[in-house]
Amino acid sequence: KMNGIILLTLLTIWSNVDCTPCSYSPSQWCISVDSAIECGVLKQCLEANATKPNTQVQPVQVELYFESLCPGCRLFLTSQLFPTWTMLQDIMSVTLVPYGNAHESFDGKQYQFTCQHGEEECLGNMIETCILNATGSKAFQIVYCMEASTDVIKAGEKCVALYDPNTKWDSIMTCVKGDQGNQLMHQNAVKTGALKPAHDYVPWIVINGEHTDDLQKKATSSLFTLICSMWKGPKPEACGAAPMKRHRSYCYDE
């Protein structure tokens, strides 16, 4: 993801390139020298980086505390959080914490977890936790793929293969069944337990480190509008900034 180069900078780059096909989406053009060369925008990317202001505006930080089988959590993640992130990922960050209303105890060797929607949810939470740890920038897409599926658990392997084919499902399940997953889930329990104010339902949404009833209501009503309103930098076109009239990179029907 192209952190620090906002959408308006991308628009400037687009207006100075030819219609050269490449394997990267526009938001990935300047992610590396190789991608910039392949897409024919190396000069523009270098210029954009050189003219960025020194003081970078921090992205709007969204934390979602949820459970893998909670209907309301699945609805918010698939209908609000993921679509908003798809449009505004250059001005927002997302942290997912699968745990929710679960409880943990320690048996002297490992932590044992009890989940609101049973053992299947504990398994779903653990799979998503291991995916978040193992797949980096692809993790959110994989979790979305799972939560948008009819069967969250069964979708896991196919979603990983679709979005991160380099990650083997066996490695995810090794994490799920082993000490690594157990410790990662304990970290989720600690993080959830440290919420101020303490959560009393999920999905529990934290924006820039803060949870209020008003923020929760706005986020569940229109997260997109909330993120645009809280972003302190120049508004990207998706948030309603005036679009540029024409771009030389567009192939117009004259």
What's the total count of β strands?
Answer: 5
Number of helices: 10
- Order of strands side by side in the largest beta sheet? 2-1-5
Q: Which runs of at least 5 residues are low in confidence (pLDDT < 50)?
A: 1-8, 50-55
Order of helices and strands: HHHEHEEEHHHHHEH
Overall helicity: 40-55%
CA distance, first residue to last residue: 34 Å
Beta-strand share of residues: 5-15%
Shape: globular
Overall pLDDT metric: 87
Largest sheet: 3 strands, mixed
* Radius of gyration, CA atoms, in whole angstroms: 20 Å
Structural class call reads mainly alpha
Function: Lysosomal thiol reductase that can reduce protein disulfide bonds. Facilitates the complete unfolding of proteins destined for lysosomal degradation. Plays an important role in antigen processing.
Pfam family, one: GILT
Signal peptide: 1-19
Protein name: Gamma-interferon-inducible lysosomal thiol reductase
Short description:
By secondary structure, the protein is mostly helical. It has 10 helices and 5 strands. It has a 3-stranded mixed β-sheet with strand order 2-1-5, with helices on both faces. Strands 3-4 form a two-stranded antiparallel sheet.
What can you tell me about this protein's structure?
Helices cover 47% and strands 10% of the residues. It has 254 residues and is mainly alpha-helical. Strands 2-1-5 form a 3-stranded mixed beta sheet, sandwiched between helices. Strands 3-4 form a two-stranded antiparallel ribbon. It starts with 6 loop residues before the first helix and ends in a 24-residue tail after the last helix. Mean pLDDT is 87; it is low at 1-8 and 50-55.
